[in-house]
Amino acid sequence: MKDFFKNNSRILLRPQKSIFSAATIIMLMMTVSRVLGLIRNRILAHYFSAQTLSIYFAAFRLPEIVFEVLVLGTLASAFIPVFTSYLSRGRQKEAWRVAAMSFNLIVLVFIVLAGLVLIFTRPLYRMIVPGFAPAALGKTVLLARVLIFAQGFFLLSYFSTAVLESLKRFLIPAIAPVFYNLGIILATVFLAEHFQILAPAIGAVFGAVMHFLIQAPLTVHLGFKLQKGLDFSHPGVRKISRLAFPRIIELSFLQVFKSIELYLASMISGAAYTYLTFANSLQLFPVGLFGISLAKASLPSLSYQASRRNKFREVFLSAFNQILFWTIPSAIFLAVLRIPIVRLFFGASRFDWPATVQTSFVLSAFCLGIPAQALIYLLNRAFYAFHQSVTPMLVSIGALVLGAFLGAVFVLIFNWPVWSLALAFSLAQNFQFSLLVFLLFKHRKNFGFSFSDFFSPFVKIFSSAFLSGGLMYFCLKILDRSVSGQRFLFLPKLEVALDTRYTINLIMVTLLTGLLGGLAYILLAWVWRIKELMILLKFFARIEKISFFSRRFWKKRESITMD
Description:
Layout: H1 2-13, H2 19-47, H3 50-59, H4 61-88, H5 92-119, H6 121-128, H7 134-166, H8 171-195, H9 198-213, H10 216-221, H11 235-268, H12 272-304, H13 309-336, H14 338-346, H15 353-367, H16 370-385, H17 390-413, H18 419-442, H19 444-447, H20 451-479, H21 481-484, H22 503-528, H23 531-562
Helix pairs in contact: 2-8, 2-12, 3-7, 3-12, 4-5, 4-7, 4-11, 4-12, 5-7, 6-7, 7-9, 8-9, 11-17, 12-13, 12-15, 12-16, 13-15, 13-16, 13-20, 14-15, 14-22, 15-18, 16-18, 17-18, 20-22
């Protein structure tokens, strides 16, 4: 038993030295977290109506503004590259000094901003959600004041995440979100009867506390210690502040865009923001799983390799093509199976067929921007590695202004439904991605990229994904009785279709269609000799080889023990 805990503690503590191993860990744990997130939303849809859930989701708006602008703006773009640069030069003592002073500064600013939010919650929400009735507005204000405490614990937790990821410890930070989702799920199930919509907000606070506690011990173990004071004169702290400022401005515009999105959704209907949030949670699954995980795993390596341009180019292109390989077929998969997927994850007595249709339309519009959205995370981190945060900031602000303008035009002038907000977001994301890639070409002497580095893999991957998506669409038309009752192209009506009003049939249709599309994509990728598939096959072959030798070792050990 002692050896068991010792070996497992080594797994938790040891660094992940390669991008692929780090990304694999992040992907696996993010898959668990995202699945729990979808289960969380399914439970919320079971206990509360779409109109009530709009109040709950709207309540996150102000607390998330404080957290995302301050914490995410500082840690990802500024703290990790600077902290890593000290470590790479062997200046550990200075690195921990910078970490402690940065922590103190972030906590101080958060306390000030959180206090302002608590004081001015009601007038701010009057501006953000003008379509809410007075009773709904009152509930939103109450929930927002509870959720601001969750963001405080998230601040502490994400600082630990930044430290651990700088030291290439990705497993513990990847596990932490699981506890956050579990907190909301358990609180909703056990407290909803007594506390109503306040129950998941209480769960969010509990989950944030667990998110922090799971990471704090390892952060302290690796060397972080609290220190008194604020050392603004330290060059590392000044550099973090200088690098973080453009990212903070960028995220401020992002929060303004999200607030405008909430404002426009509240003008459409009381349930519109729920449809938007549920569809967004589905489209964020591939974005987070493949885009964020690979980008997060790549940032430390990109920062270390910033001075070696050829190595930097190799690391970047590998991550770029891996994201393409996974996100393009994922987007097509979600677009084709949008209605079955929405019904599986959110279908409940309080979430009826019209709500399912509206959410599926929103999901389709989001699918147009999934690959671009995922790749933006990597493109931004490529600039961060060279301590260039102004360029991605300006590009992002331009995209957000475009998205807000398009959303306002679609809703206020054309009177389009809520899916138009997702369309505006996708168009803006594609604009941002295109401009960032253009700037990489413009600076190709610095980065060493060529047009073929991007174009050739994209054509192969898109062709494979598009053809497999067409096969999935054809299969769905045959298997789903709700659509196969109609004549499809030249085919007669078929009796093999399943009645998808029953959950088991719905699962079978979704799995069969998805499996067929996945196999077709792998086959086409093999025909095209797509490099990313070959890397994946080598990875599985390596696992099988390790497993084979492991079995031989244990058999040999057992025979020695018996002798």
